[in-house]
Structures are given as structure tokens and as C-alpha cells.
Amino acid sequence: MKRLTCPYFLPCCAIVLLVLSKLTLAQYEHLGYPPGYGDQEQEQYTAPQLTPDTPRIQLRLAGDKRKHNEGRVEVFYNGEWGTVCDDDFTIHAAQVVCRELGYLEAVSWSPSSKYGKGEGPIWFDNLHCTGKEKTLSLCPSNGIGVSDCKHSEDVGVVCSDKRIPGFKFVNTLPNHVENLDIQVEDARIRPILSSYRKRIPVTEGYVEVKDGGKWKQICNTEWTQFNSRVICGMFGFPGERKYNARVYKMFARRRKPTYWDFAVNCTGNEAHLSNCKLGRAAELKTNGTCAEGLPVVVSCVPGRAFAPASMTGFRKAFKQEQPLVRLRGGAIVGEGRVEVLKNGEWGTICDDNWNLLSATVVCRELGFGTAKEALSGGRLGQGMGPVHMNEVECSGFEKSVTECFFNKESVGCSHEEDAAVRCNIPAMGFQERLRLSGGHNPYEGRVEVMVERNGSLVWGTVCSEGWGTMEAMVVCRQLGLGFASNAFQETWYWPGAVSADPVAMSGVRCSGTEMSLSQCLHHGAHLSCAKGGGRNAAGVSSAPDLVLNPQVVEQTTYMEDRPMFMLQCAYEENCLSSTSGQVPANSYRRLLRFSSQIHNNGQSDFRPKASRNSWVWHDCHRHYHSMEVFTLYDLFTLNGTKVAEGHKASFCLEDSECDEGIEKRYECANFGEQGITVGCWDTYRHDIDCQWIDITELKPGDYIFQVTSPPCVLRPRSRKTHWKSRSYTTQRQLVD
């Protein structure tokens, strides 16, 4: 924890932040870019050529996973699954594991059985990989099966979402195929019938896997409803249904399919195809056709919010009616903190034992597909009210998470452990019909939409008349950029394509819940925009998603009486009430002190707007201030009258701590770069200057504590605090 500068964040009744920062493109390179933004060609996969004496192994990721592409590293050798010890394991070894499984690269690795203890032999210990090996068995080690480790030392890895282009599964253990997980480059539902080709989203068609760079169908002789359930789920659909098989038989006779070599064996509760087992080798005839079968077809049932519908005319976003479960705090559709209704009061779920199975039940219940990720640790914001469920255990087939087994005692659980989900949602094509143009980075720019004009699809701008935060929020949601930080009514500094200057959409009015800009009210084909497009077109910028940890505030708040002669630095920075300048130096000020902890859960680093050469050195506190005002602290009476205030005049931003696998990038010492990295947090202790509100003139009573901060929009919360002499109690309030 840092003891360096003035404070900066707090609990809240309303927290309002707007990011005004313009970041250079280089600052975003380590984050990756939105889909389609400057994609670079990836190296093509080359199947490893192994010498005859190379031990043949197969790998899988197992255990208590919260994403399909992470887990305990398990090795199949000599007819038995075993694990890998974490001794001497490095990111280079993780790279070999992920590449062998068909992922582009390793993101991180975890020691000490993070994903649970495995079973069987520990096949590898003291691995020394360079990262270039074609298989884990080629890395120097103690020898296969030679280990002094226990399963409490089982290692786990997190692989990237991206697969290696052209990846082809090579089964080196043909006699043990039923023990292996499915490894393919990609999968899709390809619409076959003309009526389904025109629908968005695609709900019915052939199931195809990409193997060796080629799309192939799957023979349906061993296909089950459980397999269909998994496929539909990973593409964002909560369920599956029957289809007209006769039509597809006719189509298969006319066009010869290309079949994959294996069958698929899912239990139905998997979140992703890669978690299913490989089925037996497909029985193909000499002409390549499927023996006594046809290509697999699935027909999926979309959630009501994604049901195919006409895009013409005015259309409002569907508001789901779920009486028992809801998601809150997510920046995009299908993600958020899980909240359940019990005895008329909304509360949260503790993240103990929270996994993909339970998260998938939540996602399907809300009309989405399977869970993409089960999040823990209040990653999508901390809720208010009670913690209703703890140690949730689902089979994956429940209709509601409230039907799952759980521990009714939530002793020890706080909102720091609130569970959240990211769900798979259908591909609606929203991102293909809207873009940001001319910005300095992928997260800002002039808003341009694709519309049909005279039979052709053309890009155009959006009229900025009445353009505001609600509209900007919908744009950022549609593009998957998180929360909006600013809505701009002039964009002359973001020159887009000249051909896209004409206005293509006007009169846009959004409620803020829509999934795309086209779902907002607008003028349709009859445009009206006095300002015109071009330099006066609408624009947006997205912001880091900064989340306050209210428990830290609640646990550290106290009052202190401090003499004026010890508050000279704070007085110079206006951190005391206006009456402090009229009192003698030997008088005391009563301060409400607290710590604050700000997490960056967004998609971009938070950086000061000012460049380093404009930072101001403050001799009193002996550090550079990168911003003049960041946070305002206010106390109101219950009728809304402001009675006390404080502020964070300026401060130093740095990464105090980071989530596992993320490296710190910002440090204030020695005139270092300032900011908060994605996945890290900045902590300001209660005992540093200005981390307070001056309440010297305040009478004991109930007050509303409000924090307003300019950099970006945070979720509103409130605190009602009651003081008697030096003691206080806090009572939480629910504020949506």
C-alpha cells in the first residue's frame, strides 16, 4: 500500500466519472484491438514431426475452470492421465502446453493446484522448456514419471482465446481416443437452407469444425441431443429443438459433404466444444460419405432478446423479465454481477466454488448461451444488500441457479467475493454495421453507420443534434468497448473517410438499454440534420471501467482530531473546509478518514490526460501531480443539502497490486509513468494527506456520502453514515 500522495476515491451515492484522456495508439498495443481493427496475419500451423523415440503424449486442461481455455495441465501417457508439478515451471513451459493444445500462446500459469488437486501419477517434474518445443515430452525434465511432488503442487495454465490458424489435431494415441478432449481450430453453424441464410442470428444449419485449415462436417451416426445442447450454448443459444430432417437429406444427396475424422461425445453440461470428449473414429465409406448417416444439423432456440425480427421501422430493445435472477454492472450485453431475489430483496452470490457449470445455468436462465467466463472477486463491481447464496454447486441442467445446491450460511463472505458471469451471446452482426473512425486509438472516434442507399450499402455519419451519454453508451456496447466516457457533438479533430461525411442517421434517441444504435428511436429514411455531418458528426470515446472497492472504505473509516499546524500541506491544496483559514494554528480539525482502492476492470489502461512534461512538482508532498482534480467528496443531509466537502486536488496514479498473471506497468517513483493497468488497482491509505472530509463543523447525525469523479462513469452506490462522538455505523442502501 502506498503512503505517497493525496487521496482519490470512495464509496458513493452517485459516482460520476468522465474520461477526457486521449491516448496514443502505442499505449494500446499491449491490449489488443477490437475485432477487425488492423488484424495481422498469423503464422500458419505446421504439424510437428516427431522422431520415433519421442514419447507420445496427449494434453488437456481440467479441474475447477472458470474459462474453457484454462485449467490444470493433465498429461495422458502409458494409458493413464496424470499431472505436471509446478517445480521450475515457467511461462515457456506454459507456452509449449498451449501451443500443443492448438492455442496461439500462453497468457499465464498458476502453481499450487489452483484448479484443484489432480489424480494419478505426476508425469513431469522440473521441466525446463525454451518455449520452442513441439511437445511437452521434448522439454528436459527429471524423466517421465520421476517426481517427488504431491498433487498440491499441480500446475495450471491460462491460454489465449485465439487458436493457431490451420491447426490440425493429430492423434498420436489411436487406441485411447475415448480419453481425449476435442481439439479443433474453430467451429460454426453454417446455414444451408435459403430461409436460414438470411436470418440474423443464424440458428440452424450444419455443424462444422475447422481442422487443418478446412471446414468439415460431422457424421451424425453417434450424434446426441447433448451434443446439440453444447453447440447451441457456445453460440449463444439457451436451447435446441427438432428440425425437418427430410429437407437436409435431399440437400446431402446433391452435394457431397467433407467429413471430419471423429465423432463427438458431450455430456450436455459443457460450456464449450473443447470440453467434450473425442468420439470414436468416424466410419466413412470408400467414397468419403458417412456410413448410414448424414452431416450433423442443429436447430437452436434463441433467447427472446435475440429472436430474428425485421430491422425496419422503430424497434426498442427487449427488456427481459426475470423475477429471480438478474445481471448488474456489466458494460455489454450478457455480462454482469449475478444477483438473485430472495424474500423481496436483491442480493449477490459468493464466489466460493463458483465455476463454469453454475455460471452457465445463470446464462441459460437469462436467455443467453453457455458461460464464456465465471468471474470472481467482485470483478464486475461489488453489490449491495445481503449475500444470498454461497458455495453454489450446479449440475448444469437446472432451470435456475436458485435450484442448485448451495450453503445457506454465507459467514465470511463479503461483497469483495461477489460472483459474476460473461455469457456467450449470438452473433448479431452489430459490429459490422457500425465503426469509429479517425480516432487516435481504437476506443474513440467519429461514429459511422452502414445503411442501404439506392440498393447499395454505404457508410455515413450520425447527426450530433441531441447526441448524449445514452447514445454513446449504446455505441460502445454495440462495439464491445465497455462503458462510454464521452459523447461528442463535434468531431473535426477526428477526420474520417470523406466518402462517409454525409449524414446517414438522425434524430437518434436511446434509452441506454439497446443492443445496437439501430434499435434506438431515429428518423429512419427521412433525415433531418441542420448541423450536417462531417466535422459536426457525433463521436464517442470509451473509458476504462474503474470500480471502487466499497468494503475497503467501510472497513477503514474513522474520525481523527488533528492540529492545524500539522495540516499545512493539506491547507495549501484546499483539502480542508473554507473555515480552516480563520482559526489559529493550535486549533484542531475533525477529519473523517478512509482508504480507497480503485480497480481497473475495463479494456484499456487509465492514464492521465496531461503529458509528463506538463506534470506539476509539489514540493510540500514531494511528488509530481499528474491531474489537478480527480475526485470530489461530499456529505449531504437526507434532504439533499450539502454540508461538507473534500476533494482530491491532485495525485499520483500507480499499480499498487495486480490480478494473478498481470505485471505492474505504472509506478510513481523516480518520475515514472502514471496510470492504472487493466487488471490492477491503485490503493490510497487512510493515513495520507487529503484522504478525508473535514467535518469539524458537522453535527452528529445521518448523512449521504457522495463521490463525484470526472475521469469515467462508475456504478452508483450510496452510504448512510451515523456518527455519535467518535463511533459510527454504516447502513447500506440499494441503488440501481
UniProtKB/TrEMBL annotation:
Molecular function GO terms recorded: copper ion binding; protein-lysine 6-oxidase activity
Enzyme Commission no: 1.4.3.13
SRCR domain boundaries: 59-160, 189-301, 325-424, 434-543
Paired cysteines (S-S): 85-149, 98-159, 129-139, 266-276, 394-404, 510-520
GO cellular component, one term: nucleus
Family: Belongs to the lysyl oxidase family.
Protein's UniProt name: Lysyl oxidase homolog
Organism: Scophthalmus maximus
